[in-house]
Amino acid sequence: MRVDLDGEGATPATLPRFQRASFQARRLSRLTYVLGGLGVIGLVVSLFVDLFSPNSLWTAVLTNSAASLLVLASALQSAQVVALWRARVIAPDEVAISSEEPIAAEEQGWYDRLLTRIGGAGTSMVGQIGAPVFWLAGWALLALISISMIWNLALIGTNVGLTGSVAGGLLLLIGFGLLVLERQLSNESEASWPEAEQLAQIARGAIGTLLIAAFCLFFSSADRVWPARLAVLTGLLPGLVAAELLIRALLSIFSPRNGRLEPRLVASSFGAGLLRWPPRPLMALQNELHNRFGIDLRQIWAFTYMRRAFLPVMAVIVALGWALSGVHEIPMQGRGIYERFGKPIEVMGPGLHAGLPWPFGTVLPVENGVVHELATSVSDGASAERALDPAEGPPPAVANRLWDATHINDKSQVIASGSGDKQSFQIVNMDVRFVYRIGLDDQSAMAAIYNSADIPSLIRSTASRVLVHDFASRTLDELLGEQRSDLAADIGNAVARDLKKLDSGVEILATVVESIHPPAGAANAYHAVQAAQISAQALISRERGAAADQANLAQLHASIAHDQAAANSRETMANAQSADLSFNAEQQGYAKAGQAFLLEQYLSQLIQGMTHAKLLVLDHRLGGTSAPTIDLRSFTLPVDPAASPKSAEQPMAE
Hints:
Strands 6, 7, 8 and 9 form a four-stranded antiparallel β-sheet that branches. Strands 3-2-5 form a three-stranded antiparallel β-sheet, covered by helices on one side. It has a two-stranded antiparallel sheet with strand order 1-4. Strand 2 and strand 3 (343-348) form a beta hairpin. By secondary structure, the protein is α+β, with helices and mostly antiparallel strands. It has 20 helices and nine strands. Among the domains are: 12-268, no CATH class; 300-368, no CATH class; 374-379 and 407-518, Tetrahydropterin Synthase, Chain A.
């Protein structure tokens, strides 16, 4: 319970923690200087090492170890503040015990005197908040910044040699000293030193960091990556504690300050409190809630029931989860080989399947109809990240080529060649790709899992052997003159036969020859041959086109003449048939009607002939005994234009 000097019956001199406060303050002061000095030295050495060997194991080990020592030093300094307050209460004549009586300048440290000169002990922000809070926040922030600067999980292995063994031994020696300190703090009773247990918890975090750092140095080598990664991850332990101390320091600003009330240790860490055996995180949380907020979870029956039922419920959940491990879900594009006690039983299709739980029954995944494409050769530097070259700088070495794209999948093949009467060889680069899948039957799935450790490597090695054997018997002329489809078919059949002999379970679906790059001299000659062949073929095609044009034109003219003659003959025949039908009809009409038919024909012909004639029909009885006279002269009577209409109409009337 905290002591209030203004309360009634307060007798701090009778309490053991007040009686030993002076001794504890001196001891904490020495430990703070020693550990803080070691932490600062470690950071300085880490900076020098980073200048000569950046992103190395040494930087991670030294920085994390120094950060853990700085965090412990900040906690010791925060505990020293509490011990000094108790010491001032026991000796009121020697040391001021309230904020109204400032500490003498000769009893203050250089940092406290500097802050006092800046703003005054009682009026400035430093005087109101307190210099120990700034110290705690500063040490924690320095540790966090140091850890964040060296955080890099892409470190490679480092061969530290004898120096690493010596440094690891030194870290173990410092860790042993901290272990002695932790044991002493753990043996302190709460009545004589309430902050000892919390300081021991933070000391355990520093000890763990130093031990892991030494372990990484002992096992580090050029071909091992995990020591470097583990050394970087070790920074999580002091980093989390430093972050918690920084947050507590910031939150303490909003706490009311009372110089007559016994202060509470600010540098207490819940995360460091979990470093105990056996670990009891729930009890630590319960004690923290009870001490900070006065909430006692032990009085709530629900939590008591949950604590009692936790183990049985967890056992049931674990047993149910273990039983459900025998249920396997296989996707649509996959299959599964079910193993019972290590023996393959069957090949399962897509869907849900039940079997024995792990490890008695397992399912090995197998592809189901997934098609892959594989190149026979892949460059080692294809996946490596290359540095970008400046736009104004010289061209990179990889740009020294005649084509504008790198052929990373080309594979060099030696083929036979001849120069005059001498035999030789040439090198041809080819890009051959295989399209394959695992066979759809159960035997192929079994073979793909149990007979092949790496299917792409198996296909690539088999294809390389087939290509070497196949091209050893070919010449450049045969290679360039043969159809690419026939060449791909020969290679694919040979690879498929070899894979079948090996019982790999792989099915070659297609073989594609993407490109063939002959030597430079042969390429130029072949290009000239190809150009001449193309020109000859183009000339032949043009002549064939002209001949076809002339033949089609002649055929068109003949077709037109034939069609015209056929039309004329058809028209003549139609006219003759029409005349014949007309004659037969007239003959039949005359036979039946006689003279009447002739008169009708005569009259019809007369009507047709006189359709447009001007006729004047006169009755022969008008002239009596004399025949009528027809005047066929074409003239009209003169008409006077000046005559009146009446005079003009008179002759007509007459």
